[in-house]
User: What shape does this take?
Amino acid sequence: MTAAAQATGWRLATMGPEHAAQVLAIYQLGIDEGNATFETAAPDWEGFDAAKLPEHRLVAINEEERVLGWAAVVPVSDRCAYAGVVEHSVYVGPEARGRGVGLALLTALLASTDAAGVWTVQSGIFPENTASLTLHRRAGFRVIGTRERIGLHYGQWRDVVLVERRSPAIS
Assistant: This one.
């Protein structure tokens, strides 16, 4: 448990089916805010569970077992050359923001992927999501570029800032 977690009454745990409803609710809140993803609706648990790699899923939960945030990864490709490259997501519920939950989740996720031999963790972030960009910078990610007008989102063209973090464990 991190010092921030101890001080604020929450801990990190492996995400399981018992967290499904709360994880998907936080995901939907992020979707509804409009700056987290191109998705317009959270999937059902079966879809979520099938897409995310089981060995790299975390939740931050409080003393009442309420999920405050989550992090997970998906493979970027099934081609063997990309076996060590994943795309991640990290979502924190509105009531838990600014308490170190996102950084703790992301740091633990990176420790997990490093230990598994994953050499690149990447994501795309809307440039308007300055909190996420700041979080990723703090966690050691670098901006590798911006994909301009890459997709329509509610009738508006959106840019996506590409971020990545190369594992220091891989040479």
The mean pLDDT is 94. Helices lie at 3-8, 20-33, 45-51, 101-115, 130-138. The first strand starts at residue 10 and ends at 14.
